[in-house]
Amino acid sequence: MKEIKAGLLGFGTIGKGVVRVFQNNAELLEKRLGARLTLARIADLDITTDRGISVAPAILTTSAEQVLTDPSIDIVIELIGGYEPARSFVLKAIENGKHVVTANKALLALHGEEIFSAAEKKGVQVMFEAAVGGGIPIISAIKENLCANNFRSIFGILNGTCNYILTRMTNEGAEFASVLKDAQAKGYAEADPTFDIEGVDAAHKLAILTALCFGTRVRFEDIYTEGVSQISALDIQFARQFGYKIKLLAIGKKDNGEIEARVQPTMIPLNYPLADVDGVFNAVRLVGDFVGPVMLYGHGAGMDATASAVMGDVMAIVRNLDAGGAGRTPAMGYQRQNIAAYPVKAMADIVSQYYLRFTALDKPGVLAQISSRLGQYEISIASMIQPEQQAGEAVPIVIMTHEASEANIRKALAEIDQLEVIQEPTRLIRIESELI
C-alpha cells in the first residue's frame, strides 16, 4: 500500500487536534484514501510539555528544518500562526517540492499572493480550509461546489470571541469589559484580545473570502476594520427595541466593478438567520446569481473542528496526488491570468442606514438642532427613541436613518458633536436591513 508522509509545524492546540485525528482515525483515513497516511515528524520549540496524548519521541524535534528538508515528507502542515517565521517556513517547504496545508489566515491575507505564486511555479498545492471558519467547509464550497456562480455578496460572523461577547451582552445586559474578562477566564479570549475584539482577525478572513468569491486581490490594509470594544449594553438594548441584533459582521460586496470590504459592528434584523448565530459559532452567508442565498454554520474555531478542516485538506492533497491531479483547482478558485484588479470602494462612498445615539442635555430645541444638521446633509430620519429623564440630565436620543452616504453622516456628526448640548461623541452603528 502506498504511504504518504506528513510533517507538522506547531504542536499547540490545533496541532494536538491534528495528531489526535492521525491516531484515532488512522483506519478510517486508510479506507477513504486507499493509502497509508503517516505523521512522520512534529516540530515545535516546546517538545517536553505533556499534551495529554502519546507521541513517539523519535518523531519530535525542535528544528523546523528537519520537517522542511526531509525528502520523505510529502506534505507540510503549518500551524504555528503569525507572519514570521511561518512565511519563511511555508516558502521553504514549497521550494523543497512539498505540498502545504495551513490554517494561517493572517499569513495568507498579507502574503498569499507570494505563496500561491511560488506554489504554482513549483507545481505543488497550498490548501487552507481551516484558515476561515474553522470546521465550516466554506473555502471548498466556494472553489468547488458553488464555483459556477457569480457571487454578489458575503456576510460573515467570522470571530467566535466577538460573537460570544456580543451574545452574552445581549442575553444578560452585561457590559463589554466584564464579559471580556470572563471570556478570557474561560479561554474564549486571548490574554491580549486585540486582534479579535478590534476586528483584525475577521478582516484577515474577509480578505481571503473576497478574493475567492470575486476573483480579485484585496489588500488587507484596504479593508475598513472596526471592532466591538465600544459597543455598550445600552446600544444592544436600543437595537432590540428597533427589532435588531448587533453582530460583528464581515461584509463583502461586488457592484459595478467595485468591491466593498469592511468589518464592523452591524445591526441586522432579528428575523434573519444570521441573527440566531450565537456563542462561539461562526456563519457565512453567500449570495450567488444561480444558487441564491446559502448559509454555512458551525464551529469557527477550537481544536477538533479546526483539525477536521486541516485533515480534510491533507486528504484532498493525497487524493489529488493519487489521481495525478495536483493543481486541478487553482488556489484562489480562478485561473491566475483571470484574476482582476477591482478597486475597493472608499468608506466615504458607502451607502447605508445608520443607528445614531446622541448623548445630549435635556433642553428645549435639542432635537431641532440635531435634525436640522442631519437635514443639511440629506440625512432623513426613519425612527427615533428618546427616553424620559430628569430635566437637565444628559439623555440618549436614538435615531435610525434612511439610507445615506457615509461621507454625509461623518460631516453631520462632526458638526453635531461640537454643539454645547452634546455631552459625548455620537455612537454610530451601520445597519444591514437587506442582506442582498
Automatic annotation (TrEMBL):
Q: What catalytic activity does the UniProt entry give for this protein? A: L-homoserine + NADP(+) = L-aspartate 4-semialdehyde + NADPH + H(+)
What InterPro entries does the database record attribute to this sequence?
Answer: ACT-like_dom_sf, ACT_dom, Asp/hSer_DH_NAD-bd, HDH, HDH_cat, HDH_CS, NAD(P)-bd_dom_sf
Print the keywords alphabetically. Amino-acid biosynthesis, Methionine biosynthesis, NADP, Oxidoreductase, Threonine biosynthesis
PROSITE patterns associated with the record: ACT, HOMOSER_DHGENASE
Q: Which residue intervals define the domain ACT in the entry?
A: 355-430
The metabolic or biological pathway listed in the UniProt record of this protein is: Amino-acid biosynthesis; L-methionine biosynthesis via de novo pathway; L-homoserine from L-aspartate: step 3/3; Amino-acid biosynthesis; L-threonine biosynthesis; L-threonine from L-aspartate: step 3/5
- Entry EC number(s): 1.1.1.3
- One Pfam family for this entry, by name? ACT
Family named by the database record: Belongs to the homoserine dehydrogenase family.
What is the official name of this protein in its record? Homoserine dehydrogenase
